[in-house]
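Quick illustration for those who missed Monday's session on complexes.
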Amino acid sequence: MLEKSKLRSIILPFLLIGICLFSSCADQGTNSESSVQTSEPSSFSTPESPTQHTDGSLTISYLDVGQGDCSFIVLPNGENILIDAGNQSDGENIIEYIRESGITTLDYVVATHPHADHIGSMAQVISAFEVEKVYMPKKAHTSKTFEDLLDTVKEKGLSITSAKEGAVLFDYGNLKAEFLAPNADSYENLNNYSAVLLLTYGDRRFLFMGDAEAESEAEILAHNIDISADLLKVGHHGSATSSTESFISAVNPSHAVISVGENNSYGHPDPAVLSILENTATVWRTDERGTIIATCDGENITLNHIATSIQPHAPPDVSSDSASDESPDDRQSTTVYITESGTKYHRDGCQYLKKSKISISLSDLDRNKYSPCSRCKPPEK
Ligand SMILES: [Zn+2]
Ligand SMILES: [Zn+2]
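Prediction with zinc ion bound:
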């Protein structure tokens, strides 16, 4: 196990950022309190020489897949968990993101439930990697996406382990992952079949809800077990069908992540859910922040995001939280990026720059032709 994890223990590029953040935590005298640092890393590229994953940190990436779900977790022992794989159009980005971290094997793959915004690219992602174990709730679906997933699992010679309450992915003492749901064999609503995963590392707990709704939340509560978690991946994209007040108060999260598409037609997240969450937690949304990354050393949790970036040529400044810190001189020389066919301009690292990326000084930009990207929110002056 140890050897295996060593081989695969090439760390994600943003670990470097994590290290900076941890040291800045130490500087500020943060102790056992879980802390949030917001900063904007300078790039989203793989470092030239991959760093060994030796610092014992857990890294969770809540990938920005628009109106969908995809969480990728690298465990402190080098193993990893993929929970869901976004919509059908997200496959390439998800695969690239995982590959950039040097990972070639997915140890634990969880398809929370058969909706297309969760398993849309799962067949493609499973095809692209070696896969050890696949977990799914016992619920068939007639969609082509679901059929394709089953075919791919079969082609790869994999079997499906049933995701249900009480099933344990692993238990290494201070590192454990187990399912809290589904608790029943049948539900009217497909969302309630969602595999709900509780991950524990040291003193910290992370809860991943899938699209579980109030019915599933009530079943989890009925067990009267400790479901408190420091970081909650909010159920069903922040919909009002989930995150009941009693459930959120039992979880009592410090941080809450909502995976949701900008201006989605469902009206997610619901304002009532946001206000319930904001009673206890800092809310991070992928439609506002892009991909959200949580790192944890077993004690402190650090949150970060990678949709936006600091000036490409500016010195790294982890304490800078917004572009408004720039001096007027800096603004004049600001470099932004456009694409061959688009009418938006972007910050370096924006997901919309995947296909083409042309750098241009902000002062040279034709403002009649280009407007700022609403995703990465580049400087306007
Ligand atoms: Zn969903
Ligand atoms: Zn769903």
